[in-house]
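go over both lines:
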Amino acid sequence: MKYSHSTHQPPFGRLALLRIMICVVVTALPPGAYTQSLSLRRDRNRAILSTIKSELEKSYYDPTFHSVDIAAVFKDADELLKQADSDGQMYGIIARSLLHLNDSHTFFVAPSRAARVDYGWTMQVIGDKCYIAAVQPGSDADKKGLKPGDLVRSIDQMNATRESLWIIQYLYFLRPQPVTQFLVESPGEQPRQLEVAARVTPGKRLTDLNEYSQYMDLLLEEEKDARLRRHRYLEINDVFIWKMPSFDLPPEKVDSMMGKTRKHKALILDLRGNGGGAEETLLRMVGNLFDQDIMIGDFKRRKEKKPLKAKTRGADSFKGQLVVLIDSASGSSSELLARVVQLEKRGVVIGDRSAGAVMRGKYTQHSVGLDVVVFYAVSITDADLIMKDGKSLEKVGVTPDELVLPTPAEMATKKDPVLARAGALVGLKLDPATAGTLFPVEWRK
């Protein structure tokens, strides 16, 4: 057995990513200059709201905004900003103005907080119920007895469902919680209440990119995050297993990875937890999996339709067996690739129904301020994708050819029946316990 991982960096520049990671960048500030009044911070966030409204009106694919009165929504948000007394409240108000559209690719990315919050647990929908998917060893969650496979009855008195989980996760990202209240139930046990503390790491509220040590600290933090986003793969006999966390590879990196697969008779492409990514990565992946050009679908924009086609790599495309793994967290490009495989009868898709989040988002970075510059971003849906069968996957998702769901007991013992079943489909003997050790959950340290 050979195990390794690719060493690529994301195709976007590090500084572009740092704009979203950091809260405030200072280029040349006199001492005490960040002591800004509440009035100034309100004005800053009202400016952010105004910019987002303008971009939404210009770019959103549906000129009727699904019958939502955008003018009234943003007017109400602006009035609320005048009354808010913290940046956290203001970010929440801005975010809610976009959530009225109930659109998977239209959202606000707030400036990052100075402090880093690591929860030590993850949740996932399996079928129609929400479970604890993983717990970090040594975390407060671990010490309090939170376990993988625990059914989440409620989190901070909210009911986590397939429809609501992404909103809950977004709100926890937007306004990190130092303590979380759970009502959970382990297999065969009574429900229990737990109060779980997050690990909060204080950081600098101000970062001067002209200061070398501070700049290098930011790069070091990015290196830690990049490690968790890396692509991992295994070569077992004549089977290639690719754990693909996101569609973030440039075309030449896709070709390099697919070049490795051509030495094998079968490819297991694991897109579980893959929320999507770049359109060019999707097109290159499809081009590497088919020996003819593929029509994926038509983008339905505000005033026009535009075809989305993938050009084959011809003789260099992979021609062996293909099994694609998806789950409830597989979104966007992951879903499109899986559905293309189904429509073209190229392989087998197994796992859980996907997220149903496949709109095309236009992601734009912005900044506000002069001496003190605050960076934020916004994603605006500029197109829906109507696939070759005439249907959209938005709010529907991809139903796998084989529904394979881990049980709570299997989650608790870190077994992976989905990957084991994929192995069986390509002639690889792999029991669920062994499969569960191949790509262990990794945590930021």
